[in-house]
């Protein structure tokens, strides 16, 4: 039912987030829990484009609250948003590796997740990210029972990186 009436106005999420961020630490825990649930429910109803548009301003309001809500949201749109945010971090950030690695453990990855993970692997190539991507591809193949365009994209990228096997041996191993 949530997908029947998607939220397209970024102001909806921003108003809930501002209200939640404005609560004092001593404020009633019930209000905080209610607003946190409302924020997650609102994000779940947003399509990818609307969420992407709202994200920069939302992160300015409260990075920790946005991260918490996106991780709890669970929709493919939220997972994609997390990976897009991670690609704004400095490439040396260990947080990218940790978050992508965790996402690689999702039991039934979506095509969107594999596509976003590939974009992240292109942004930062590391063992944890490549492992997570390969795990997500394997699980997606188990679900789809065919080679999807996303799986083919990962295979093409891997072959491009390997080339003729004459390059940097550490990179080829990676």
Give a written overview of the molecule.
With 174 residues, this protein is mainly alpha-helical. Helices cover 72% and strands 0% of the residues. The chain is built from ten helices and no strands. The protein has helices at residues 10-22, 29-44, 48-61, 63-73, 76-86, 94-103, 111-123, 127-144, 149-162, 169-173. Helix 3 crosses helix 5 (76-86) and helix 7 (111-123) runs parallel beside helix 9 (149-162). The longest helix is centred in the C-terminal third of the chain and has 18 residues, at 127-144.
How do the strands and helices of this protein lay out in sequence?
Elements: H1 10-22, H2 29-44, H3 48-61, H4 63-73, H5 76-86, H6 94-103, H7 111-123, H8 127-144, H9 149-162, H10 169-173
Helix pairs in contact: 1-2, 1-3, 2-4, 3-4, 3-5, 4-5, 5-7, 6-8, 7-8, 7-9
Main beta-sheet annotation: none
Counting DSSP H or I runs of 4 or more residues, the number of helices is: 10
Q: Residue ranges: pLDDT <50 for 5 or more in a row? A: none
Class based on secondary structure composition and strand pairing: mainly alpha
Helix content: over 70%
Q: What is the overall shape?
A: elongated
- Tell me the number of strands: 0
Order of SSEs: HHHHHHHHHH
Distance linking N and C termini: 43 Å
* Rg result: 18 Å
Strand content: under 5%
Mean of pLDDT: 87
Domain Vitellogenin: 9-140
Organism: Cirrhinus mrigala
Protein name: Vitellogenin domain-containing protein
InterPro entries: Apolipoprotein_B, Lipovitellin_superhlx_dom, Vitellogenin_N
